[in-house]
Amino acid sequence: MTQHHSHAGHDHSHGGHHHGPADLEHVGRSFGWGIALNLAFVAAEAAGGWWANSSALLSDAGHNLSDVLSLALAWGAMLLGKRPTSARYTYGFKGISIQAALLNAALLYLALGIILWETISHLRHPEPVNGQLVMLLAGAGIVVNGFTAWLFSRGQQGDVNVRGAYLHMLTDALVSVGVVVGGALVYFTGWLWLDPAISFVILGIVAYSSWGLLRETVQLSLQAVPTGIDPTAVRRFLLAQPGVTGVHDLHIWPLSTRDTALTAHLVRPSGTDSGFLHDLQHRIQDEFNIGHITVQIEPGACAHGNCDAEHP
After folding, report:
1. Residue 131: HSE in the Cβ half-sphere, 13 Å Cα cutoff
2. Which of 112, 126, 141, 308 could form a disulfide with 192 if both were Cys (CB 3.0 to 4.6 A apart)?
3. Domains of the chain, with CATH numbers?
4. C-alpha span between 297 and 265 (Å, rounded)
5. Full DSSP string of 25-53
6. 223, 237, 248: which is closest to 281 by C-alpha?
7. pLDDT, tens digit, for every residue of 139-155?
C-alpha cells in the first residue's frame, strides 16, 4: 500500500495564537519583573505577618512564596524549551514546560496544606493582631500582585504556564483585598478569631481557583488532547476533506504547553498530491492551532473496518 506523509514544521503559522520572538521576549520580561517584585513583597509580608501575629498575612506570604517558585519554574522551563533539537531530543526540551506546570500545581497544594496547619494553630491559640500593619502590607500586595497580573495578561492565551501565572497573580490581588478588609475588622472590633477565619477563606479561594489548572496540567502530562481542541471536530474536519472516505489512528497530543501535534491516517481512494497536503496542513493549523502535523494517505479501501467513514 502506498503511503504518503506530510509534516508541518516549526516555521508554519499557528493561527491566532502564534507566539513570535517579540511575545516570548515580553513573557520573559514579565517573569523577571514578577519574580523580583513578589520575592521582595514575600520578605516584607512574612516579616510583617510575624511581627503583627497575623496568620492571614503569613498565609498570604506562604502562598506568594509558592507563586515565586512557580514563576521561576515556568520561566526556566520556557528558557529550556528554546534549546534546539538534537539527535536524541528530536523535539528539543519543549516537554519540560508540561512537567514544570504539573510541579507548580503540586507545590501550590503542598503550600496550602502547610498554611492550613499553621492557621489551625492560630485559631486554637489566638494572639493580638496589629490590624494597621496587616492593612498596610495587604494594600501593598494589591498593587504588587495586580501589576504582575497585568504583565502576564498579554501572553496568557495558548500557554498553561503563563495562564497559571496570570491567574495566580490575579487571585493574589483579590485575596489581598480580603486581607485588608479583615485587618480593618480586627482593628475596629478586636475579634482575634477573625484573622485565622479570613485565612481559611483565603485558602479556600486559592484551592478552588487553582483546581482547574491542576486538572489541566495532569491532563497534559498524560498526553490528553489539549483543552480548547475538540477531537470530534478534528475528525469531522478530516472526513470532510475532498476524496477522504475514512479516518483512523487519529492522535492529538501536547508537545509542550504551547505546541500540539497530530498524526492521522486518511483513506483517500484517489490518492494524494502535494497541493492537497499543503492545503490540509495550513487549514488544520488555522482551524485548530495544531502546528506539528503528520498525515498518512492510504489510497485503498478501509482495511478491516478500522476507520470512520463519512457515509457509513
Report:
1. 17
2. 126
3. 23-222 (1.20.1510), 231-298 (3.30.70.1350)
4. 6
5. HHHHHHHHHHHHHHHHHHHHHHHHHHHHT
6. 237
7. 888 898 889 888 887 65
